[in-house]
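Sat 14:20. Reprocessing the chain from the morning session after the first attempt stalled halfway. Input below, unchanged.
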Amino acid sequence: MTSSTPDPDDHPRPQRFHVKSFGCQMNVYDSERMGDLLSAHGMEAVDSTDAADIVVLNTCHIREKAAEKLYSDIGRLRSPRADGSRPTIVAAGCVAQAEGAEIAARAPAVDVIVGPLAYHRLPALLREAQAGRAIDTDMPAVPKFDALPPRRAAQATAFLTVQEGCDKFCTFCVVPYTRGPETSRPAADLIAEARGLVARGVKEITLLGQNVNAYHGGLTLAGLIRELAAIDGLERIRYTTSHPRDMDDALIAAHAEVAKLMPYLHLPVQSGSSRILKAMNRAHTRESYLATLAKLRAARPDIALSGDFIVGFPGETEADFEDTLRIVEEVQYAAAFSFKYSIRPGTPAATMADQVPEAVKDERLARLQAAITAGSLAFNRGTIGRRCAVLLERPGRKPGQLIGKTPWLQSAVVSIPGAAIGDIVDVEIVGAMPNSVEAVPVSHQESAAA
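Finished this time. Tokens:
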């Protein structure tokens, strides 16, 4: 291995690392935890790959062209720097799990290959890599979380992984093969971690899982939410991603009864066609999905809904796609994510007949995204005049602007003299764009009206 990784016995400064995260929110959480782990071993985080001795590429296999993005980054990182060195390169995450052997053969510059269930061994793998490439893509029985250090100082919002893996085996999806079967962390561990986050200033926690509402760590997800809501200082709770099959009555009731549970739900449907849903092995129909949403809206009338869609699944006809457009119109999503179907080797859909031509996928995706954008704008316009609390998260583009999240997960742009990131402020929504809303402080609005 030719790298700039210093030997701690020979170098006065700590090793510097940079973790680059691809894809889903769980990868963001995993990247943060890898950073915690490396920091606990005396290493120092830096903001760019150029300054890093160690670069971790934490990959996602769900997104299209994920492997190509990985190899592109590897190609750039393997080029020698001005001093002739290069960083130690770590390929982590779901692409590493699914394609570890191919990465090893195709990218000799990669020093460590580690899957998403083994990254707690990253410091040991880095030591092993000093003598040659180190690989760990096992799915150990001992949960990785037991080996991770306490979390570092956090911001106003934080992710908390409560569940990993999937037993659903949708025909298009690699998650059961890259993250393993559904497993849940013990509720006591999660409550303790949440208390630690709140003690560090966190006000909103988003519970994560591939099938988060399948959580069964001694409590149901509804039970866990109720326990977390009892933590003083924790102001908001969210969760993602859910499966329609696991959206039970207790969880729906929590949306009506737990004030800290925000009125927002991401519930992927993937297609509006029951025929395609059956081919996807989604275990729900168009009708059962809509019935679940009706229950949710009866329990929490102001709930904002989000979804995922795949267009161009094998065998999808124009009539099937029209069903998807109709469900977008019927549900009136506040937001949604849409993707062209892309083959994932090893999944049943990869070998199905009637693969849809790319040009057809492109045309359908454009139509779907136009419908989703129109729906998002309509939802945002429908909130004009509402007063709500916004949790401020980051600076805006203009001087004095701050951006925060409404209860419905809208990005709200607001100018409030004296306010700071982490504050929860009362605002009135006064303007709407497809991806954000404009708000003013309630006190300002009241004084203007006077």
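The CA atoms of residues 221 and 243 lie 12 Å apart.
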